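Example for reference:
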Amino acid sequence: MARLSQHRQRLAASGILLVASLLLASCGSGGATDQARSACKKVDRSIDLYHQATATPPPTNSDALQNQSQALLLSALGEAARATSADGSFNALMTTLSEATRVPEGLLVPSLSRQCQVVESNTPYLAQ
C-alpha cells in the first residue's frame, strides 16, 4: 500500500513539473514574439527605404537611403537574436538578417517580407 502511495506522489510531482514547464514556456514565447515584431518594424522601415532608394529614376540621395536601409537591417538583428534565444521558431528571421552584410538587400527583401508577414500575423506560430 505504501508503495502505491509513493508511486502516486511521484506521478503527481511529475505532472506538476510538466504543467509548470509548459506555463513557463508559454510565457517566454510572448516575449519572443514581441522581440520579433520589434525587429520586423525595423525590417519594414528598411524595405520602405530600400524601395525609395531603388525607385526609377533613382533619387539624388539614393546612396544615403540605401545606407540607412542597411543600418536598420543590422539594428534589427539584435532583437531577432533575442527572439530566437527565447523561441527557436524565429531562427529564420535572425538568419536572414545576419546575411545582410553579405547578400544584396534586394535579394533578401522577399524572404524578409514574408517572414515579417508571419511574425506580424495574429497566429505567428500557425503560419510557419
Residues 32-120 form one domain. Residues 11-28 have pLDDT under 50 and may be disordered. The CA atoms of residues 49 and 92 lie 22 Å apart.
